[in-house]
């Protein structure tokens, strides 16, 4: 008699094989399903938790709607705002993209909230922290802000911690930060957070402010590259758009331009890197130049009686608007080592001998385009831009030598911004365009018209001639009666407090004196000293009399950056004026010239020591004291770049005057930039 198992095998052998295979496949699938079910149960029911988060994460009206369509939108919002990339793939899968797309379409249809508070909240977004585990329990969290509006955040159950979107924190607390990514990563890996922007001046221990040394931290400036500079014009000085979009000469900006280049030169121990195109004392290499003699072009060397050395004489045909490289005299520039910005300037001595002349430079940029910068005496406008050609007006008097010095990098940036500004693009677009233009190298130099040229070079800097262009503009444009440099733009501090064009400024006078004193110290040319001495005249007159003087509480002398009535008592402009008076007093003393600058300085420093604490808020600084002088006017807090300026100025003052207030405030104000504050009661 066969056993039970034997009988089962006999019966099994009678079943057709195709039915047997089907049965075995069914049993296998059932076992696999059972294993998956057990695994999901042990995982803690993540699916149920995720769907609960999805249902409560975002309610459009804050009243707890739970419709299926809202749930789909909310799923996309949770994914977009809170899930980091690696966890999103593990937990949400491919469903997330379709849900996110649905959320994006739905958000476009919604009407934005009209309140300002809600607008701040609407900007909020965040990413969940990465603790290295894929089993973080997370749920949406309503964050009530001052019982006025709600921001959506996250609650991390294992950490017992709430997370607020950084976009909200940034706006609410006026702080700064950007998401950073490591090379090769598929998303942000770090949040770079800072309480303030700007880097305060950190001088060497041996630094002391003097009338012959660098001016504060100006050596690191790029005045011509600022957003509010239209361009550097045919006078080789910047044209400002600060209070007039059409552009005007602002003596403060021109003085800062000169101080920048003087300070960079004074603080550098290295000489400029130079690629010579035409160098005095060296024979002209005719094979290095392409001269089309068939159309009458010529290039030769000759002795110049005025300069006393050999120069290059050139002549080609020229007509306004007809400048082409093929008709000029061409020189291919040798490749340079280092970055393009290392060779951003051109410098030469030029003299026009015919009816017109021009120099053009073909420059390869980082976008692989070749731009052409043309400096042309026939140009009728300061700057014209057509495509990749930027044409600047060149001033040249026939038969008179002049220095030609330009920063090609800045001229290219200003050309791009000028073109976009005329196309009425937005400010961010202008900033992006400006930042995107990077000089790689100068490829070609072309001479047009008739003239002489000497010592033509491409170089890393041309600080000295640029500083001299600024200081010579100051001498030429100083009002011989008032001793001032009037600002020909309307300055409105508030609707009923404005300065009409032609107003004087203590800051303008002070920074001009600082530049004039330095150039006099270097050259001993009395015209610079005389201009600086004349610049003290407005300090003796009250603002209502056309000067820059004010008196605080009928006792303390103040020199006004903006000579308004009532007075505004701007801090940074006042200290800049004191530095100018100090610099003038120093060079006047060394020249044994009588000057009132020292007494004006001492009167001002007395006021500064007595009043500077009024500008300290315990968490930052105040820009001016209009909240004292104008009834009901709110305090005008200094934004962080002006707070940095205040730090830099007290740093300079501490090297002149050993009164403890300057060092004390420097350390305290530096602390404010990293979130420190004075104690409260």
Number of strands: 22
Largest sheet: 11 strands, mixed
Backbone shape: flat
Contiguous helical run count: 19
Would you tell me the structural class of the helices and strands?
A: alpha+beta
Can you put this structure into words, describing what you see?
The chain is α+β, with helices and mostly antiparallel strands and 681 residues long. 37% of the residues lie in helices and 21% in strands. The protein is built from 19 helices and 22 strands. Strands 8, 9, 10, 11, 12, 13, 14, 15, 16, 17 and 18 form an eleven-stranded mixed sheet that branches. A hairpin with a 3-residue loop joins β21 and β22 (556-559). The protein is flat and about 115 Å long. It starts with a helix and ends in a 9-residue tail after the last helix. 35% of the residues are buried. Residues 7-12, 43-121 and 123-134 have low confidence and may be disordered.
List the helices and strands and how they pair.
Blueprint: H1 4-14, H2 17-42, H3 46-56, H4 68-82, H5 85-91, H6 95-109, H7 116-122, E1 138-145, E2 149-156, E3 161-163, H8 166-173, E4 176-180, E5 190-194, E6 229-232, E7 238-240, H9 251-267, E8 274-278, E9 289-290, E10 298-304, E11 309-315, E12 329-332, E13 345-365, E14 370-376, E15 383-386, E16 389-393, E17 402-407, H10 408-422, H11 427-436, E18 439-459, H12 463-477, E19 491-494, E20 497-499, H13 506-523, H14 526-534, E21 549-552, E22 556-559, H15 571-590, H16 597-611, H17 626-629, H18 640-656, H19 660-672
Parallel strand pairs: 14-16
Antiparallel strand pairs: 1-2, 2-3, 4-5, 6-7, 8-18, 9-12, 10-11, 11-18, 12-18, 13-14, 13-17, 13-18, 15-16, 19-20, 21-22
Helix pairs in contact: 4-6, 9-12, 9-13, 10-11, 13-14, 13-15, 15-16, 15-18, 18-19
